[in-house]
Automatic annotation (TrEMBL), chain A:
It comes from Salinicola acroporae. Keywords: Cell membrane, Membrane, Phosphate transport, Transmembrane, Transmembrane helix, Transport. It comes from the Bacteria. It is found in: Cell inner membrane; Cell membrane. Residues 69-275 form the ABC transmembrane type-1 domain. This is Phosphate transport system permease protein PstA. Gene3D superfamilies: MetI-like (1.10.3720.10). Its main location: membrane. It is a multi-pass membrane protein. The chain crosses the membrane at residues 21-49, 69-94, 106-131, 137-155, 187-207, 253-275.
Length: 283, 312
């Protein structure tokens, strides 16, 4: 009898085919859901976007999203700048100075926890330590909440990227008489720059879509607020949230929320693609 | 390195005063550079302490007033000042459980498809797509759940989902949200299996499924479970994807599909209009959520410590 015809062989083959079909089915189901979301987003969002969406402020009827887009951009940039300084410094310590000590292990563990801590908790924390003492919601509180979210991302990518720099480079620089800080600044950073930039860009993309930490920190506003971080700052995610909940009875505002959601998602996807492009340039 | 440069050795003695001062200044910079960096790293440690301390302090009045009743009271009624965490805790755990039950088989299926079966030209584009989808902000998932999924469920299964929204709907939305995440982690983990192991199993005559089941999965078990637990951590703390579709029913409703609430949704809905005891009780809920996710994430990191698991 041909070995391919034994019952055992047939059973194994059938089981294999069954599982493989199930895997393909899972792939199809997963992508159907995700494409359905993107499809809804584009079909509902595209109609609500016009040039005036970007320049007019939010109003109870009509209006645009200009102030919200600006507020999100400003707060995200400010948080990214602060987060980069803190994150790169801390990540450098972990990669270059920490060794195998207990302190490094603890900090790394805490950083991993903060990396995936619920963002609404960060919002509550900033509310308790910034908003309550200051007495009002403010753009600064929003910036700080976003900073707490981006710092772990930057620390992680800085450490990972610096660890990729071969030790022989450090040793060569040291043999030429360079001090250790000089080696880090001139040799290690220039080698790891593209990777660290990728991490920062991904962090930027992540915090620009965060809603929960802004609920009790920067709140929202329907006025233009260009640089006054001391008072409430309009922002895109909160505007979307409010238009979909407390203002949901006004069809125009719901449509505008979908427009805003499309703008936000498109910006985040472009940032992610740019980050990917950056890291490919490196290798 | 720093100390050898700073110590005046016989070699340094031969240098001019200016050169020696310059070297000593650089050595001092070296010391301060390290101290500054360490201060920033230490700030991360303080940050976690500050988060826990501030949540504890600000929720203390509620904890003191309600004590253990906080965990047994089955309703959250602000008008009569009765605050029970049970409905929110039940909703948080149940929605996350539903999400994991749906997301794990689908994600593993996609990951196995991508690593074992997928034709080469599709592998990279599909993997990139999955990673990009993991970056979509969670509020988008919530909006889609409210506008598309909930009405669909109401039309298709009116007896199971009379309102469309509810705990099960929230669970489904969470599942869709964490599928790209768990898939990306699982794919990375599976890709760490050396090709030699795979090839030797195929060489013995194994089918694709037998290779996956007997060789690949056992060797990366820890990493896979770690990825799932990380996904669970996301689902537990998710606010925006859930708030829109969970129904916001503040009384305990121990069904699968009924309307309910979760800790994050309850905080998001009530915090800005609350004060006094209610605000303190909401902060206590936040503390509970943080402790739950802390335990879950610590467990995930423990499992992932030897795998790649680079994802946030």
């Amino acid at each position: 009898m041909d070995i391919n015809q034994t019952p055992l062989y047939r059973r194994r083959k059938r089981l294999n085919q069954l599982v493989m079909v199930l895997c393909q089915l899972a792939t199809v189901i997963g992508f159907i859901f995700l494409f359905a979301i993107l499809f809804t987003l584009v079909t509902k969002g595209i109609g609500a976007i016009s040039p005036s969406t970007f320049v007019e402020r939010t109003r109870m009827n009509g209006g645009g999203l200009g102030n919200a887009i600006w507020g999100t951009f400003l707060m995200t940039c400010a948080a990214t700048v602060i987060g980069t300084v803190i994150g790169v410094a801390a990540g450098t310590w972990l990669a270059e100075y920490s060794g195998k000590g207990l302190m490094a292990k603890v900090i790394r563990f805490i950083n991993d926890i903060l990396l995936s801590a619920p963002s609404i908790i960060i919002g509550l924390f900033i509310y308790a330590v910034v908003v309550v003492p200051m007495g009002n919601f403010s753009g600064w509180a929003g910036v700080l909440a976003l900073t707490v979210i981006i710092v772990p991302v930057v620390i992680r990518s800085t450490e990972d990227m610096l660890r990729l720099i071969p030790n022989s480079l450090r040793e060569a620089a040291a043999a030429l008489g360079a001090h250790r800080w000089w080696i880090i600044v001139r040799v290690c950073y220039s080698g790891a720059r593209a990777g660290i930039m990728t991490g920062i860009l991904l962090g930027f993309a992540r915090i620009s879509g965060e809603t929960a930490p802004l609920l009790f920190t920067s709140l929202n506003s329907n006025q233009w607020n260009f640089f006054d971080l001391g008072s409430e700052m309009a922002n895109l995610p909160m505007t979307i949230y409010q238009n979909m909940t407390i203002n949901a009875f006004i069809p125009d505002l719901v449509a505008l929320a979908w427009g805003g959601a499309l703008i936000l998602t498109a910006a985040i996807l472009i940032l992610n693609i740019a980050a990917r492009y950056f890291s490919r340039q490196r290798s | 390195m720093a100390t050898t440069n700073a110590t005046p050795t016989s070699g340094l003695g031969r240098l001019s005063d200016a050169t020696r001062r310059r070297l000593q200044r650089k050595a001092r910079i070296d010391v301060w550079f390290e101290r500054t960096l360490f201060a920033f790293a230490f700030a991360v440690l303080l940050l976690l302490g500050a988060i826990i301390a501030s949540l504890m302090l600000s929720s203390w009045p509620a904890i003191q007033r309600f004590g253990l009743d906080f965990f047994t009271e089955n309703r959250w009624a602000a008008n009569v000042e009765v605050f029970g965490a049970l409905p929110a805790i039940y909703g948080t755990l149940l929605t996350s459980f539903i999400a994991i039950v749906i997301a794990v088989p689908v994600s593993f299926g996609i990951a196995i498809f991508l690593t074992e079966q997928c034709p080469g030209f599709l592998r990279q584009p599909l993997s990139t797509l999955i990673e990009l989808l993991a970056g979509i902000p969670s509020i988008i998932y919530g909006m889609w759940g409210m506008e598309v999924l909930a009405p669909l469920l109401r039309t298709w299964f009116p007896s199971v989902f009379p309102a469309g929204t509810g705990l099960a709907t929230a669970g489904i939305i969470l599942a869709v949200m964490i599928i790209p995440f768990i898939t990306a982690v699982s794919r990375d983990v599976i890709n760490t299996v050396p090709a030699v192991m795979r090839e030797s199993a195929y060489g013995l005559g194994c089918t694709t499924w037998e290779v996956t089941r007997r060789v690949i999965l056992p060797s990366v078990k820890g990493g896979l479970v770690g990825g799932v637990v990380l996904g669970l951590g996301r689902a537990l703390g998710e606010t925006m994807a859930v708030t829109f579709v969970i129904g916001n029913n503040l009384f305990l409703n121990t069904t699968l599909t009924g309307q309910g609430t979760s800790i994050a949704a309850l905080i998001a809905n009530q915090f800005s209009e609350s004060d006094g005891t209610q605000r303190s009780a909401l902060l206590a809920l936040g503390l509970i959520l943080f402790l739950i996710t802390f335990a879950v994430l610590a467990f995930a990191r423990y499992l992932l410590r030897n795998s790649t698991g680079r994802h946030a």
